[in-house]
């Protein structure tokens, strides 16, 4: 069960953090990968590492999800390399921590352009290929902050964008349900990544986490992979529109 051999998985934001972790998880199950991100040097390093470790084919493609031509180019690069796309993990994202009353319009729009519009744009363009083929697994990466507010760090634009991803997932799942394409959403909790580690390692935030997360710890490397593989699998054909928190229990209390 959950064997992904022969499947082609596209992952955005794949040059570091959770994107890289999920790339390892899907490759371990046999999927060939297209890794998308803006930083070519990091992409090449990750691609080489995964190919050598799992023996799958990994195609790194520089892509900016805020630019339509760039996303369309990534679709074409995927088709040129593999002739199809089976799985899309919409992971690229940013997070600005600024009090709402001090946030400039440009900061707000920057967050939404990557975290929400970028997710829609990438799902739409790769979704066209999936819909034509009659098969696809789209996995949008939101956040537990897309489900609730928080009292630790002001991040209204991030909350708004990630909340949008949650309901965008439901909308696409309903719209494409009869056409062979499932659309689901993972909402990670506190995982130490390139974007978050400076905040999470502070004593103040660690104390907050221990008080608010029932498991009283941050997520470990690889703890998203089982969910990604489950939602990507052939066997999960009756699973669509699901919003799955992986947050140590943060959103259950």
From TrEMBL:
Boundaries of every Ketoreductase domain copy: 7-180
Pfam assignment, any one: adh_short_C2
UniProt GO molecular function: oxidoreductase activity, acting on the CH-OH group of donors, NAD or NADP as acceptor; quinone binding
The keyword Cytoplasm is annotated on this UniProt entry: no
Assigned keywords, A-Z: Oxidoreductase
SUPFAM superfamilies (alphabetical): NAD(P)-binding Rossmann-fold domains (SSF51735)
Top-level division of the source organism's lineage: Bacteria
Gene Ontology annotations of biological process type: bile acid metabolic process; fatty acid biosynthetic process
tRNA-binding keyword on record: no
Protein family membership: Belongs to the short-chain dehydrogenases/reductases (SDR) family.
Listed name of the protein: Ketoreductase domain-containing protein
